[in-house]
């Protein structure tokens, strides 16, 4: 098992490598900081130990949090793999990315990626693991965008389909004369559960047991669901193990103090009422920052509101480079110096096509979550892989037997409310919709106006023709096409207003 950070550093002091490592650390004192982002796939914010889950084992992420900065109000812009990653890499809202607002689609060619900015500033840049971010080919007469990566490695090995096995080798084999940026993207915890078959107890400890998992109120507390969650927890723990390996490697290379580490996830767990949802179970993310040279204090928690589009300007500022005008986020560095600092009042999120037709928007102010749904006639049952899961099919069986609780029934609800409002501190699972409560009329009106302003200033829209369903909403099976038919793509949400050329961030 990997050791917590304090023990890693203490152990290094007792080895013959001490003189080499100390010299390397001293040499890097005046150099630009390195940056390592480790991003989990499909993990909800509260499925790390340091965020309150006593069952999912994440000792290495917990150790980073105990030595660094833990964000409690960090939010994604999309609870959908490629739109979320594209949003992070460009520092822009999904509808401002062109077709990339929807799953599996490319990012508009005119937009800057922050790894490109780092590479042009002298950084060695590497992507190892899940990519899922592609640029659109440049238009006729438009120059080809600069290369963002020196190294791209899918990272999958025969004994590790989580794509983490070559993370540490990437750090060790990097050019030693440059600062480095590594985007380490795990495939854990994306379905299907390969960690169960690749489990190494000497590394990861014992497998999680179904009787120990935490079953959220919108899932059924039945054996199939508990086993589903246990397998999911195994993938979370495997991701954590490799976070520890990277940390240990940075320490042994003498680079830990001079490296900004960020740990987060791209969207919520692949279970009903999580992934693709605008509620916290889908859109809130864990975000742990560790950087001894750049973050004041240890084991600090901040409730300052941040969006993942704030990562790009943060990293660029830390690297001493110029922030492109296309970036809509705002740097988090004031929070690194003072966890009480405020960099934004609002965080916005989107629900666009991910296997199924959808158009939803939300705004948070740190106290309330306001949601607006432009397709209320359609259920928000979750993506196709979640629909095919034992957890969803168990709920479906209970539904047919009229045995669902209100929280569980929300998975199948249609029509849905056009508006939802939640006081998140009092209602962490967002089960009590206050949108039509008289005492919250002013709150709803205020946040509705903020969302209107953001929609207008950033060029969002509800196209007449959205991309339709590709899968069956009951079974998750792919919808069959007639002979000669092709899958249709509708107009992306930013298309009607040419939002790829709008760089205004809206209210923040």
UniProtKB/TrEMBL annotation:
InterPro entries tied to this protein: Alkaline_phosphatase_core_sf (IPR017850), Sulfatase (IPR050738), Sulfatase_CS (IPR024607), Sulfatase_N (IPR000917)
Region (Disordered): 459-508
Spans traversing the lipid bilayer: none
Highest taxon of source: Bacteria
Signal sequence residues: 1-25
Residue intervals of the Sulfatase N-terminal domain: 33-321
Pfam families referenced in this protein's UniProt entry, alphabetically: Sulfatase
PANTHER family registered for this protein in UniProt: ARYLSULFATASE FAMILY MEMBER, ENDO-4-O-SULFATASE
Name under which the protein is recorded: Sulfatase
């Amino acid at each position: 098992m990997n050791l917590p950070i304090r023990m890693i550093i203490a152990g290094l002091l007792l080895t013959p490598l001490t003189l080499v490592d100390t010299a390397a650390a001293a040499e890097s004192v005046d150099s630009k900081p390195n940056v390592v982002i480790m991003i989990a796939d499909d993990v909800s914010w509260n499925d790390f130990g340091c965020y309150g889950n006593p069952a999912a084992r994440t000792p290495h992420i917990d150790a980073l949090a105990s030595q660094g900065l833990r964000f409690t109000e960090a939010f994604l812009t999309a609870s959908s793999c490629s739109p979320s990653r594209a949003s992070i890499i460009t520092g822009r809202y999904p509808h401002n990315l062109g077709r990339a607002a929807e799953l599996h689609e490319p990012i508009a060619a005119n937009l800057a990626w922050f790894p490109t900015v780092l590479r042009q500033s002298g950084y060695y840049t590497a992507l190892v693991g899940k990519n899922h971010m592609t640029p659109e080919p440049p238009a006729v007469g438009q120059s080809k965008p600069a290369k963002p990566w020196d190294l791209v490695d899918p990272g999958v090995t025969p004994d590790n389909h989580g794509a983490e096995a070559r993370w540490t080798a990437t750090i060790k084999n990097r050019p030693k004369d440059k600062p480095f940026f590594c985007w380490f993207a795990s495939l854990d915890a994306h379905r299907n559960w390969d960690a169960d078959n690749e489990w190494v107890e000497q590394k990861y400890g014992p497998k999680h047991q179904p009787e120990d998992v935490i079953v959220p109120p919108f899932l059924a507390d039945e054996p199939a669901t508990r086993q589903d969650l246990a397998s999911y927890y195994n993938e979370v723990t495997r991701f954590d193990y490799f976070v520890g390996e990277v940390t240990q490697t940075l320490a042994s290379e003498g680079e830990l103090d001079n490296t900004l580490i960020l740990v987060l996830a791209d969207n919520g767990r692949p279970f009903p009422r999580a992934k693709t949802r605008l509620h916290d179970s889908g859109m809130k993310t864990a975000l742990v920052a560790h950087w001894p040279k750049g973050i004041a204090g240890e084991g600090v928690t901040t409730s300052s509101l941040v969006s993942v589009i704030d990562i790009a300007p943060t990293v660029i500022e830390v690297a001493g480079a110029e922030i492109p005008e296309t970036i809509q986020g705002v740097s988090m560095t004031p929070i690194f110096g003072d966890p009480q600092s405020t960099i934004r009042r609002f965080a916005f999120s989107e629900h666009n096509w991910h296997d199924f037709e959808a158009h939803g928007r939300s705004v948070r102010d740190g106290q309330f979550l306001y949601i607006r749904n432009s397709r209320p006639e359609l259920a928000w049952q979750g993506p196709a892989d979640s629909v095919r899961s034992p957890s969803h099919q168990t709920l479906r069986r209970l539904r047919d037997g009229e045995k669902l609780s209100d929280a569980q029934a929300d998975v199948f609800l249609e029509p849905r409310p056009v508006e939802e409002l939640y006081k998140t501190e009092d209602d962490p699972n967002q089960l009590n919709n206050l949108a039509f409560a008289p005492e919250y009329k002013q709150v709803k009106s205020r946040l509705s106006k903020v969302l209107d302003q953001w929609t207008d200033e950033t060029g969002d829209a509800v196209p007449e023709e959205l991309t339709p369903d590709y899968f069956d909403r009951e079974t998750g099976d792919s919808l069959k096409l007639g002979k000669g038919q092709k899958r249709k793509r509708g107009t992306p949400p930013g298309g009607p207003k040419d939002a790829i050329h709008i760089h205004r961030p809206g209210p923040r």
